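Annual report, structural modelling task.

Input specification for the pyridoxal-5'-phosphate complex:
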Amino acid sequence: NMIYLNGQFMPIEQARISPMDRGFLFGDGIYEVIPSYQGRMVGFALHMARLKQGLAALEIRLDMDTARWQGIIEQLLDANGKGNLGIYLHVSRGMETRRAHAYPDNLEPTVFAFTFEIPTEPVADASKTPVFRVVSEQDKRWKRCNIKSTALLGNIMHYRTGQKRQMNEVLLFNEANELTEAASCNVFVVTQGRIATPPLDHQLLPGITRHMLLDILRQYSELPVDERIISMDEVRSADEIWLTSSSKEVAPVVELDGKPVGQGKTGPIWQQAQALFSAHKYEY
Ligand code: PLP
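The model returned the following structure:
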């Protein structure tokens, strides 16, 4: 497996990062995951835009333009076989000689990229798609969930709750009992034919798949779509619940907190949504 680290390509076994890197000590960095199928990326420009916003929010100065990123990614895809590959990009604030909360402005960021195999490309086929069983709990993460920080301890602790109960994901709700997102996905619900997802704010990641799905549904379907606050009561009585993320695309949830979602199987609107997503995802 060839990786990229600080200007060089090398086998993963040769990659070395100092333990004084702020990414290691503080989780002081951001990341992206971009899916690619047979060498074609999905949502590259959108991922680049979110990466730039994240760097700006953290005041990390990185002298790398989109063309440079694209060059690195193409080299990694070539070296790693151009199958179905997720591309992980990671920028940390860089390395210092001592551990301190304060940081100098002139640190050289650590830049790391690797690819990993995506087992199967998502399909709009109820008999082939993996279905998700989830639990819910109160969102205990920080108030800047819109930043794609590598500091994912909150998400991991939530994810673990589900893992211990043999669940695939965990839906999160805020103190007002409103849905925010899931531990590693955004969430959509369908009620009486209307699709809804929570509005963008500090409580959730502005998912690229979320953005693309909203855009695709509005452009290519007559289905009504809202970005609005969704109470957990509404989630519990929804006809369908979907998770969205770069690797899962649109994934059907069939069980929430031990109760079936709708009929307890993949829904008809999910099938339409994933079919439209499959048909149009390379336009982004
Ligand atoms: N929400 C969280 C917390 C995530 O970690 C992710 C990333 O997978 C998402 C949502 C989905 O974002 P995207 O569609 O950009 O992959």
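The CA atoms of residues 39 and 74 lie 8 Å apart.
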